[in-house]
Amino acid sequence: MTVIAGIEAHLALHGVCAVSEHPQWSRRLAELADDKVLVRLLPGIYAVAANARETRIRCAALMLWDPDAVVTGLAAAALTFWPKARVAEVEFHSRRKKRSYPGFRLHRSQVPPDQVSEVQGLRLVSSAWAAVHRAAVDDGVAIDEYLRASFGKVAHVAQALVDFGRRVGNPMRRAVVTDSRSNPWSPRERRLHGLLRRAGIVDWVANLKVIADGTTHFLDIAFRDCMVAFEYHGVEHHLSSASDVINDHQRTARLAAEGWTIVPLTTEALDDVERLIDLVRRTLDSHRRGLVTGGRRRRSGG
Asked: Range of 26's domain?
């Protein structure tokens, strides 16, 4: 097998190649990098240029360069609960390394062992830790994505914050995590939850799971006592395809058959706080009066 064939086979199998493991290829790897066929991601670590921006490839390069490193931030999120995350640089924790490199940002702080796991040969912080890590700079967007995942738990977010100890950015993280106790799944939901709390409107459940006609639905903000749910409909909702609109109507009909009233809220509604709060209060008052005069309604959850 020629040198080129050997390099190609190795990269096809592993995605990255370390000079320390194959010193006989050192000169040829450097030449291929000069020809822009390969890219040197880290000192002595090469990848195929066409694949070099892939998060998993970059993280694999990091593991070769520092086997004890732990991937954190958006890169860890992209490899676990948020595959669509755009990763500009791979953040990592390391005791051994002294500096960052282009595309890789070093954190000298350590991660508790309970918050580290190995996924397909990559050492990653837990999903909750990655989300909380980002909360210092993203206003809770990563936490919202984590909570939307099937395994996302508010309790895990709270524990991750405790495990963070004393770190730069913790005041912002603490504020965002506190605001996450109501289980928001998007920035708009997070804002709506805050508006309701500040107005003294409580006793609601965020993203309540309801089974209607054998189909599982999640209600944005549900008041179980009167079976009223408020749901945010953004601009993208109005640009939905015909099939999406039909599905939405069928969903509303299934929920109505179970006794639920769905009240849509638009972006404009969230921008007019006084009118929004008045709408919520009047709707709840109306339905609660109906309960008193009309008797008990059907069960409110599934």
From this structure: 1-52
